[in-house]
Amino acid sequence: MNRRILLQALACLPAATLLEFGAYPAQAAAPGTPTVTPLDKPPAAWRAVLTPAAYRVLFEGATEPSGSSPLDDEHRDGTFVCAACYLPLFDSRHKYDSGTGWPSFTQPIAGHVGRKRDFRLIWPRTEYHCARCGGHQGHLFDDGPPPRGERWCNNGVALRFVPRADPLPELRS
Q1: SS3 of 52, please?
Q2: Edge-to-edge, what's the strand order for the sheet holding 151-154?
Q3: Domains of the chain (ranges plus CATH)?
Q4: What is the set of active-site residues?
Q5: Domain MsrB: where (predicted)?
Q6: What's the pLDDT score for residue 172?
Q7: Distances in Å between the alpha carbon of 42 and those of 132, 136, 151, 173?
C-alpha cells in the first residue's frame, strides 16, 4: 500500500478513532464481574512451556491460519482454557460453528478475559486476551448469533480443551 492511499484512508476515519490510536486501556469483560489476579511472569518465560506457534499467537499477537485448529471441530462437553496459564476462558455450551475456520464462542466466562482496541488492520477492532497471563486469544465481533450477537473468534492454538468428567460413569455401564 502506498503512503498516499494510507493517508487518505486515515483521513476517512472519525477523529475520535484517531485519538485512540496506540495503547488502549484493558477493560474487564463486564462491569461487576470477578477479577482474576494477573501473573507476574514475563512473556519470554512462557517460551519454554509453549509450542512456537502458541507463543507467537499468545505473546506476539500472531494469528493461526483459518481451518488449522482441531479445536474448531471440538464438540464435547467441557471447558476451553488458556494454553499458557490454564485459566478457564469458555464453556463448551457457548461454542458454535461460525464458518470462519476458528473456534468461536457466544460469550466468555465472566471476568476471565480483558479487552483492548486493536489497530493492526487500520480500522479498530476489539482484541481480547487472557486476564491472568495476558496472552492474546482473538477478536470480538458483533456478527454472532442471538441473543447476544457476539462472536468471540479465538485462535485454537491459544486454547486447550478439558473435557467435563462424567459424574456417574458407573451408572452408564
Answers
A1: helix
A2: 27-28, 113-118, 125-130, 136-141, 151-154, 104-105, 95-96
A3: 28-164 (2.170.150.20)
A4: 153
A5: 43-164
A6: 60
A7: 12, 14, 29, 47
